[in-house]
Amino acid sequence: MKAQPQLHMMIKGQVFDGFLLVRASAQKTSSNGGKYLDMTLCDISGEVNAKMWDGLTPPPEVAKVIRVRGMMLEYNGRPQLRVDKLRPATEADDYDMSALAPCAPLPPNEMLDYILNRVDAFTDHQLKALVLKRLEECGDKLNYYPAASRLHHAERAGLLHHTSTMLRAAAAICEIYPTLDGELLAAGVILHDLCKITEMSADEIGLVSDYTAEGMLIGHLVQGVSELARCGRELNVRPELLMMLEHMVLSHHDLPEYGSPKPPMFPEAEVLHVLDLLDARIFEMNRELQNAQPGGFTERIWSLDRKLYRRKEQGNRE
Q1: What number does CATH give the domain 102-289?
Q2: What integer is the mean pLDDT of 290-316?
Q3: What is the pTM (predicted TM-score) of this model?
Q4: Over the Cα atoms of the chain, what is R_g?
Q5: Among 4, 41, 214, 312, which lies 20 to 30 A Cα-Cα from 208?
Q6: Which tens digits make up the pLDDT trace of 207-238?
Q7: Cβ–Cβ < 8 Å for 104, 155
Q8: Which CATH entry fits the domain spanning 7-98: 2.40.330.10, 2.170.190.11, 1.10.357.10, 2.40.50.140?
């Protein structure tokens, strides 16, 4: 895989030949009547305005990867990419999506297979049917949806990343605390955030443009309970099992100020809340610590209300 320059490192006069994401694209008319493309293109380092002056090339589709050849120029003191050639990327192209947008560290199909294999091992057939139905209803969006708009797991396939990591942690905790119902906990982990898919509007790159009307007015906790109630009725799930799953979704934020009208009221619900909080915080901490100098501190992180220290040394010393 050939390395390409990052947009924020490019200087005036430098040639760019590589892959970029389309964030905006439109054909416009210049003052002399000629047609041109006005685009916003980006990689993980940032974005740049781009112009293509041939007047014949149709606007590339937003949220798609394109192959671009051009030169970095400057207009009104700001970088501008003059595009000479472009085409849509194909499956045969060798490019790294993680160099273009934040991505989960594992392929989506690998994380989804782990989740499905865990569900397939359920011995409670009603629980298995209910979880599989909800996963099936989410469809292909699971392959790219983030878990948040800008905080934890705000990345392509971040919802799968968050869910699969929590599932692994749940399995380890159940070995330490054998009184926990491992299948109930696993089901709660898988179900708790699925309605993020209807709460946010995200493209196939995993970037959130806005919250939906349902997300603003109802939210993924209440939506999750509603979807569970509907599926439970359709599958004739045992009333107590359905009620406990609904409670786990409703209570996983723990406090009213974070959206949960009820606190966790049985062990599996409590563990779900703790795992959700732990996974979110570790993700945010790891992300912020990457930008700190060893022996120094991060900027104040508003979601955690603190600064973090990055240790000077890692690993064992002899």
Answers
A1: 1.10.3210
A2: 84
A3: 0.83
A4: 23
A5: 4
A6: 888 899 999 999 999 999 999 999 999 999 99
A7: yes
A8: 2.40.50.140
Structure tokens of 9? 């490192």
Spatial distance between the Cα atoms of 17 and 4, rounded to a whole number of angstroms = 7
pLDDT, averaged across the chain: 92
Q: Give CA–CA dist 64/301, Å, rounded.
A: 32
Place of tokens 């030949």: 17
As a whole number of angstroms, the longest Cα–Cα distance in the chain is 76
**How far is residue 293's CA from residue 172's CA, in Å, rounded to a whole number?**
33
Q: Tell me the C-alpha distance between 249 and 221, whole Å.
A: 6
Q: What is the pLDDT of residues 119-135, one digit of tens each?
A: 999 999 999 999 999 99
On the 0-12 / 13-18 / 19+ scale of CB atoms within 10 A, 148 is buried
Q: Report residue 208 as tokens.
A: 């959130």
Q: pLDDT tens digits, residue range 182-206?
A: 999 999 999 999 999 999 999 888 8
* For residue 315, pLDDT beyond 70: no
> CA angle 119-122-124, nearest 5°?
130
Report phi then psi at 312, rounded to 5. Answer: -75, -35
